[in-house]
Q: What sequence folds into this?
């Protein structure tokens, strides 16, 4: 595995390659870690002890206690994380919501 490190003013991005194929991206900004791969997106804030995973199939899942404050904080962090797409080449994360809706629709039918 090869790791490419990219420094930004607001954080550091690590791109992980296996056989020259981009397999995952880790973005560290302040106390928040964003992790993307083809299967899911994980966001963890160590300082506020909140952790969540989003996948196209299962939607949003909290790995820490789910409170109203933590839900708001996670959504505030999660949406900007996905909007950071210009730093994430060729990852179909914007289709995640569509895939999740189709999965939910299939469960109902």
A:
């Amino acid at each position: 595995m090869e790791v490419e490190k990219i420094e930004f003013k607001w954080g550091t991005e690590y791109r992980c390659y296996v056989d020259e194929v981009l397999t995952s991206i880790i973005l560290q900004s302040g106390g928040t870690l964003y992790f993307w791969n083809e299967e899911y997106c994980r966001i963890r804030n160590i300082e506020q002890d909140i952790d969540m995973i989003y996948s196209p199939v299962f939607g949003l899942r909290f790995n820490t206690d789910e409170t109203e404050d933590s839900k708001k904080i996670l959504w505030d962090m999660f949406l900007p994380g996905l909007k950071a797409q210009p730093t994430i080449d060729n990852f179909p994360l914007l289709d995640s919501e569509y895939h999740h809706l189709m999965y939910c629709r299939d469960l109902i039918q």
In short: The radius of gyration is 15 Å. The first helix runs from residue 68 to 82.
